[in-house]
Each structure stands twice: as structure tokens, then as C-alpha cells.
Amino acid sequence: MTEGRADVEILGQRLSVRGRGTPEYIHQLADYLNGRIQTVREQARVFDPLRLSLLAGLHVVDELHRCRETEAQRATDAQLLDRVDRLSEKLGAVLDGRSGA
């Protein structure tokens, strides 16, 4: 992934951000965070910038962890289904061998 640089504004603070992704991607991240901050501001009626940032950060981290848990669960489910399929095939082969004897 390419490294990009973008000037963004978060909570009224202008920041020069350099990181992985295009400048457009960095702007999307800043816009997303600003949206989460706005949601926290409206729901929790918090106006202190530091508290807003921390609470919004916790919301974003919660989303990340839930996504990771979902991905991990899907991987586990896929592994279990694969094992069930292999066991079913082996059991079917054994049963077919018995019925043909």
C-alpha cells in the first residue's frame, strides 16, 4: 500500500497526517472519526475535546474488536464445517463399504 499525506481537520484541529493509503483514504478516516465524535457529542452530551476524542476512540475500537470477533467466528465456523464434511465423507465411505459386503 502506498504512503499518503493529507491535511485533515478533527475537532477543529488541523493536522498533517502521513500514513498508509491515499490522501483520499486518509480524509475518509478523518471524516469517519469526526462522525463518531459528533455521535458521541449528541448521545453523551460531552463537549470537552479530550473526553470526546477518548469516547469516540473507544467506540471505534469496539467496532474493530466486534469485526475481528466476527471474522474469527467465521473462520472457526468454516473450519468446523470442513471437518464435518470430511467426517461425513469418511463415515459415508465406511457405511457404503458395509452395505456392499
List the helices and strands and how they pair.
Elements: E1 3-10, E2 13-20, H1 23-44, H2 49-99
Antiparallel strand pairs: 1-2
Helix pairs in contact: 1-2
What's the short story on this structure?
The protein has 101 residues and is of the alpha+beta class.
Explained architecture:
This protein is of the alpha+beta class. It has one domain (3-99). The chain is built from two helices and two strands. The protein has helices spanning 23-44, 49-99; strands at residues 3-10, 13-20. A two-stranded antiparallel ribbon has the order 1-2. Helix 1 packs across helix 2 (49-99). 4% of the residues are buried. The mean pLDDT is 91.
Major pleated sheet = 2 strands, antiparallel
Structural class: alpha+beta
Number of helices: 2
Quick one: overall form? elongated
The helix content, as a percent range, equals: over 70%
Secondary-structure element order, as H and E? EEHH
